[in-house]
Amino acid sequence: MRFLTLRYFNEVAKLGSIRKAADRLHVAPSAVSRQIAQLELELAAVLFERSKVGVQLTAAGEVLARHSHRIFRDLDRARSGIDDLRGLQRGEVSVWVIEGFVSGLLPDLLGNFHHRYPGVSFKIQTGSTDRIVEALLEDEADIGITFNAISRPEIEVITEYVEPISCLVAPTHEYANHSVLSLDEICKHHLALPEHSFGLRQVFERAIAKRRLNPKILVTTNSLELTKTMAATAQVIAFMPALTVISELAAGGLRAIPISDPDFAAARSSICVHRDRPLPHAAQQFLKLLAASIDGLSEGQRQK
Description:
3 domains, alpha/beta, 12 strands, D-Maltodextrin-Binding Protein, domain 2, five-stranded mixed sheet
C-alpha cells in the first residue's frame, strides 16, 4: 500500500467527493479514481459507495479511514515536533469548541497568540459537546472546549468555568426588565434551542421533564449563533451562559436574565484534552494561554 494511494483515499474520505479531493490534491479526478480502484483491489474490499452526489464510506472504508486518519495525524505531530526545535516558528493547533466561544472569548486569545507566535496557524471547528468529545477521542482535535460534558476516563479536564445559564431576550422583549425568570414563565413564550446533542439542550430537557412542562419550541438548530440572533429580534427566548455572549451584552443587543430553576445554576464550560495523547508544543502553549484566561474569569467571578 503506497503512501500516495492512502493520501488520496484519506482526502476522498474526508470530503465525500472524488472531484473535491482531486481539486484539493491538484490532480485529475481520474487519477484519484485509479488510486482508489487500486486500493480496493489490493484490499479485496469495496471502500466507497458511489452515487451522483458523491461517495460514502462502506463499513470497510470506515475501518481504513479511522486508521489512515491516525497515520496522517501522527505525521502532523512529527512535523510539529520538528517545528518545536525551531522555537514555535511553525505549527498548527486543532481546536474544537462550542459555538459561543467563537464569537465570545476565542478571537482575542487567537489574536494574542498570533502576536507572540506568528508562524503558528489554527484549525477551529465548532460543534456540539458530544461531537467535540468524539473529536478528542478520534484524534481530530488537540484541544476541546465543551459544555456540561459527561465525565469520561479518556478525557482530561484542564480547567473549567462555572456560571449559570441565563435566558437571552431582546431589550424590547416584555421580559427585558425582569431580574429573574421562572421556567414556567419562559415556557409560555416561543423558544429557539440547540439540537439534542448540545449540552445546553440536555440541561433544558432535564429541567422541563422534572416539571412536566410543555415548552413552545419554535426553532431547533445546530447553530447557537442562530438562536441568539433570533433572540435579538424579540421573537424568541434563547439560552446561553453570559460568557458566550460577552460582545452582544456589552453592545446592548441582548439582555441575560437569570433563571430561578436550580438546574440552570451551575453550567460548566470545560477545557479538555485526551488524557493519554501528548500535545504538540504549539498546542501546549496555546492550552496554557487558554487555561490562564479561563482561570482569570473564574477568579474575577469569585471576587464579585
